[in-house]
Design goal:
78% of the residues lie in helices and 0% in strands. The chain has 211 residues and is mainly alpha-helical.
Length: 211
């Protein structure tokens, strides 16, 4: 690896690390205190756990991610896989760490939904610009977009996660948390596309190239 490539790799991981830190803080500060319904594999795992209690949520999230990472590796190469695994581990550890060292109080739901969606969407967009995801729905969106190139990553995440949020509301009967989770989701997926478009000069991003 030459010096230019090394500097680019260092810059890339600096952006990913900072994005992961802010993403994790925003989740704990805005989403968790008000128990907003969260889409993706987390929401799916919570629904399955409701009907099959002996299946842990954390274990199901990891199991569901495995086939996506295998497909991601085959389609996009080792560099994409390694960056995404790094970001998934970083955010998972930091979300637990921030929650352990500080108890974040609940706040006005609408304000928290807007602020949380804005920050989560911005940081996720920065990850996308570095051709990286933190797994789950975001990784699934990369794979789906290869077959549906007219769709942006944010729109794909919006559709998938909104279905999960609606299902969560039906199963647990918690309509208001689903409503605020939906508001946060619309804002976050919109910000994803805005950040990516600003960075790439167009909507969406190209699939990562294999080395």
């Amino acid at each position: 690896m030459d010096k230019k490539a090394a500097r680019e790799t260092a810059r890339q991981y600096l952006v990913l690390t900072l994005s992961g830190v802010v993403y994790s803080w925003a989740f704990d500060a805005f989403y968790a205190p008000n128990a907003f319904t969260y889409g993706g594999f987390t929401g799916i795992s919570q629904i399955i756990n409701f009907y099959i209690p002996f299946l842990p949520v954390g274990m199901m999230i990891m199991v569901m991610n495995v086939p996506l990472y295998v497909v991601g590796f085959r389609k996009f190469g080792f560099a994409f896989l390694f960056r995404s695994l790094y970001e998934m581990v970083l955010t998972s550890v930091l979300i637990d760490f921030f929650a352990m060292i500080h108890t974040f109080p609940p706040g006005p739901p609408l304000i928290y939904a807007v602020c949380g969606g804005f920050v989560i969407g911005t940081t996720t967009g920065l990850m996308y610009r570095e051709e990286t995801t933190a797994g789950g729905t975001e990784l699934a969106a990369w794979i789906i977009r290869e077959k549906a190139k007219g769709l942006s990553l944010g729109r794909i995440c919006l559709v998938v996660d909104m279905v999960v949020i609606v299902a969560y509301a039906v199963v647990f009967g918690n309509l208001m948390n689903a409503v605020y989770g939906g508001i946060a989701l619309v804002i976050s997926t919109t910000m994803m596309d805005v950040v990516v478009a600003v960075g790439k000069g167009r909507k969406g991003v190209s699939e990562p190239k294999k080395p």
